[in-house]
Design goal:
- With about 325 residues, this protein is α/β, with parallel strands linked by helices.
- The protein has two domains: about 5-130 and about 285-315, Medium-chain alcohol dehydrogenases, catalytic domain (Quinone Oxidoreductase, Chain A, domain 1), CATH 3.90.180; about 135-260, Rossmann fold (3-Layer(aba) Sandwich).
- The chain is about 30% helix and about 30% strand.
- The chain is built from ten helices and 16 strands.
- The strands form three sheets. Strands 3, 5, 6, 7, 8, 15 and 16 form a seven-stranded mixed sheet that branches. A six-stranded parallel sheet has the order 11-10-9-12-13-14, sandwiched between helices. It has a three-stranded antiparallel sheet with strand order 2-1-4, with no helix packed on it.
- Helix 7 (about 220-225) packs parallel to helix 8 (about 245-255).
- The longest helix has 14 residues, at about 130-145.
- The two termini are about 20 Å apart.
- It comes from Vibrio casei.
- GO terms for molecular function: oxidoreductase activity.
- This is NADP-dependent oxidoreductase.
Length: about 325
């Protein structure tokens, strides 16, 4: 009988705390489907939770061993009672178990069908796993900022998992997009419609002023320094929750409208993002896909913060 390999944390700490645990394949309950997971996305929240930082870690500290992961793509192989949204062998994508249940780092996972979207035939399983959390974070940050055509938008960490999607959405909205990145990502970001700024250069943002919207995907002192580019009344959306209060307080002192955000899973929005990928209007970048037994290396890669696009786990290897 086939078994289910899951990547778990038995205690909080470094990447070495990630281990593979073999269990029985779960059975879907009412309203659920069993998904054979192809790929799972690795996100900064996974790295922080593994280290014992944040609300998911606090909530699950007494539930260890616990399985990380919120992004999946895969195939429906079994349906629970009352499950009607999908057929067997449908390819699905999901932003699952957020923020407290997790479970995406599994070869097989039972998911409420309401958390899943059907993947069009012309989208790869890798792209389908890369889009849920990052895509919805990007879209919701820009919605919260209420960007308008003709405005100037600055995106910090524009080549990352969330950033490269935010750049494309902002450019499609006919804003003037600037995005920070390393020099090696300059031409890549410019191909997506942004003016790239090499953050490694001293005073790299000094030339920029009167920015209307700042999308902060880094947080802390870097976000505070970037506020010099804004004007009173500008809007700032800061995504990293750990420094959100500090960043928003500083923004208020400058007359800037600062807002933190926590992404909310929205299956309708996920379906819209998948449609944009299918139509060729949104391009997803996957820098590297690690075998599941190399998950520690994947976490190191994400923690270093220099990936272009998304990092994935191949859950069947």
């Amino acid at each position: 009988m086939p078994s289910n390999a899951q990547i778990v944390i038995s205690q909080f700490g470094g990447p070495e705390q990630l281990n593979i645990l073999t269990t029985d394949i779960p059975q879907p309950q009412s309203g659920e489907v069993l998904v054979k997971v192809a790929y799972s996305g690795v996100n900064p929240i996974d790295v922080k939770t593994r280290a014992g930082i944040g609300w998911a870690a606090e909530h699950n500290k007494n539930n260890l061993p616990w399985t990380l992961g919120y992004d999946i793509s895969g195939v429906v192989i079994k349906q629970g009672i009352g499950s009607k949204k999908f057929n067997l062998n449908d390819t699905v994508s999901g932003f699952i178990g957020f923020p407290l249940r997790g479970g995406g780092y599994s070869q097989y996972v039972c998911v409420p069908e309401t958390e899943l979207a059907l993947v069009p035939d012309d989208i790869s399983l890798k792209d389908a796993a890369a889009i849920p959390l990052a895509g919805q974070t990007a879209a919701q940050a820009l919605e919260k900022a209420q960007i308008q055509s003709g405005e100037t938008v600055l995106i910090l960490a524009g080549a990352g998992g969330v950033g490269h999607i935010a750049v494309q959405i902002a450019a499609a909205a006919k804003t003037k997009v600037y995005a920070t990145c390393s020099d090696e990502n300059r031409s890549y970001l410019e191909s997506l419609g942004a003016t790239a700024i090499d953050y490694r250069k001293e005073n790299s943002l000094k030339f920029l002023s009167n920015v209307d919207v700042l999308i902060d995907l880094i947080g802390g002192d870097i976000a505070i320094e970037a506020m010099d580019c804004l004007h009173p009344g500008s809007r700032l959306i800061t995504v990293p929750t750990i420094t959100s209060s500090m960043v928003c307080s500083h923004a208020a002192e400058l007359g800037i409208i600062g807002m933190g955000m926590l992404v909310e899973p929205d299956t309708t929005q996920l379906e819209e993002l998948l449609s944009l990928i299918s139509a060729g209007m949104l391009k997803i970048e996957v820098e590297q896909c690690f075998a599941m037994d190399k998950v520690a290396d994947a976490h190191v890669k994400v923690a270093n913060g220099h990936a272009r696009g998304k990092i994935l786990l191949d859950m069947q290897v």
